[in-house]
User: What shape does this take?
Amino acid sequence: MSRTTQAPKGLRATGNFIDDRFHVAKSGEKNLRKVFPNHWSFMLGEIALYSFIILLLTGVFLTLWFKPSMTEVVYDGSYERLQGVVMSEAYASTLHIDFDVRGGFLVRQIHHWAALIFVASLVAHMLRVFFTGAFRKPREINWLIGIAIFVLAILEGLFGYSLPDDLPSGMGIRILQGVMLSLPVIGTYVSMFLFGGEFPGEDIIPRLYMLHILLIPGILLALIVAHFMILWHQKHTQYPGRGRTEKKVVGVPMFPAFAVKAGGFFFFVFAVTVAFSAFVQINPIHLFGPFSPTSITSGLQPDWYMGFMEGALRIFPNWFDFTIFGYAVPTGVLVPALVIPGILFTGLAVWPFLEAWITGDKRHHNVADRPRNAPVRTGVGMAGITFYGLLWMAGSNDILSETFSLNLYGTTWFFRFAIFIGPVLAFVITKRICLGLQRRDRATLAHGYESGTIQQLPSGEYIEVHKESPDEMVHVLRSKEPLDRTDTEDVDENGVEAPSARGLRGRLRTALAHWYTKDNVSFEGVEPHSGHHGQHEEIAPEQAETATR
Amino acid sequence: MTRNGETVKWITARRRHPLAGYVVVILALAFFGVGYAYVAPGADRAEAQTLATEATGDDQTDVARGREIFVRSCASCHGPSGEGTGNGPDITDVGGAAIDFQVSTGRMPSTNPDAQMPRKASMYTQEEIYDLVAYYEEEIGEGPEVPLDVPGSAPERSNFADEEAYEAAKAEYEEAYEAYVSGADDVEVGMELYLTNCAHCHSWSGSGGALTDGKWAPELDDASPRQIYEAMITGPGQMPAFNDMIIQPDEKQELIAYVKDLQNEPDAGGIFNLNRIGQVAEGFIGWTVGLSLIVACAIWITAKQRAHD
Assistant: This one.
């Protein structure tokens, strides 16, 4: 550069002072110029981050007035309808925030809406990572951290929901206690320890409060920081395209372009949350009234992220409850409340390792898979979404039943069957769609894209003119990698099984590998634009190589 | 209108416009929506029927007219002396309160004896119902009586000959209603009773809920204090009865006042209350509107990109 730009003297002196001591200029510049791939789906995680920041800010505001105490008081605040009612101090102080603190009602609603959007964006972000295979080596650890954040966020939401000691929060805590009691042997002890005696007792609100404002947010914050540092170090994955390789990230630099966008995006997330909070009523605790152990109501649900557990509880039958040595084992609570979420979260956590073990793929992956190019994974993902979604719907079956005039027991039975059939159907349909898209990709790669122009040949035949695809599209189409075939590699030239393919574990792995890779549309040998116009021979949906065993 | 030198019709020039499809869909929806509203039977027809039998105006009940109504609308299912038939239950012990409840909420006469009836406009005026109740109590059976000191349904304009009489009746009714609801001064008693005995079917907000076997607990928004009272003492449908020994009249007053106050309570949290459905609606809106808006913004800001990154 011939032209030197000098910073103003004041800034320069300060900058030099800091740089002389911390040497930040070099690493600062490197980090400021870090590249971010430009795609909207990479912003989903940022929605979660921004909602979390909103939650921290509004949460601090709420702690200034909230009193986590079960001490009984007679309400005499400015909400007239409940004046003279005996209630816990927690509930009374929440009413105080709503009606006597300036802006308190709005901030409480922002806190609640931001919580819903926080968990929703976590799920959306996680699905993006799953379907593009961005959890693969080297990012497995960050995937695990993400799962931990997801689980903690759900717990954090549950505890926050329970704090105001209004009608739904009391019912939520009651269900939580029921789940604890269902634990064999230790159930009653766990419940007694947490509640400091019988339900509801005096201790539960202060204890949940400590967990909600200190312990869990602390861990969440630490995990989010770790998540970001690992991301920063490993860099984003990127979608396939021209110039984008496993070794090179293409995108906009952090500073100034991306920083401006991200900053603006924060304000947009904030604006949407505040607009919701200003206009849409959420969790009207003043209408619900305080909780008392005799109160019970229909038409109340947990917040959406607990919905799938609620649904599991609602549809799981009590046929398997049994009693052993005089101790009841209520599997009708134990399985849906602990085993099913356990399976779901464990499944999410082990998937990257399971997939790597099945495929034997130990390579680094920085270019994202297009979901269609991993049909089994995409199918499994859709099956998982269907499973989760059906449970979630089952959790609101009374609302569905009332809103759409359905038979309540009918919905229970529908979900009992659908929970098994739905995921299988979703898997099969998704996989077929993926394979169909792969075939179309191969045709597009070989023949170019359909131009929409119809030509008549001298013989009278009509054909559609295919044009050469743009370079970018060819890059995207060719990003499909040949699938690794662990099962075929496991036999050497003499037909002797490799040691890794022997035994129960080896056979299981071979079978899984066959399942994972058998339906694959091979792109091998397909050259871009190698097909000729008019020669429209159907490319047989040949399978990669049939397993030779 | 000309195109390529040719004169084309107005419609031909526009039918391939990018927005044409939307316009057609909107027009079709509007056509069917308005058409259905016009064709479908509504409350108007029921009102026309009540108009035919105008209120007599005197306070004396007319047993003969009650008999006429009974024979015409009740006897075919409940039998000529109310002992019940294959289509309808024995009503000799349900009491006048049940008659008033069922007929004034429009559930009786029923159009389908096998299904739970939804609330609809009543076939008969309050005077006619009184006549029916008088006939019932004289000839058919006995049981809980109509709680006349609890305010019933608001007067309807169509039952009055002139505006003044209607206004006077309305003012009188509103005064009685206010006196009844504000006569209850212990919110806590009403709330405890409601949340302990009623909310598990009718829900915390009184907006109703699903019951077993395709039945449902109706919403209480339109129910008059008297109808709620009658429902408690007679236990219609799946509902258990709460007689005046179990929940005393003044406690019932507290309970009714609690529900009515709650329903008239403005939604302090914002102009959209999501029908007070609660968490299901909140989650649904959070995902469909909230997250969609934010993602749309993400798509927008990442779509704008310089040619050389």
In short: Chain B has twelve helices and four strands. Chain B touches chain A through 61 residues (CB under 8 Å).
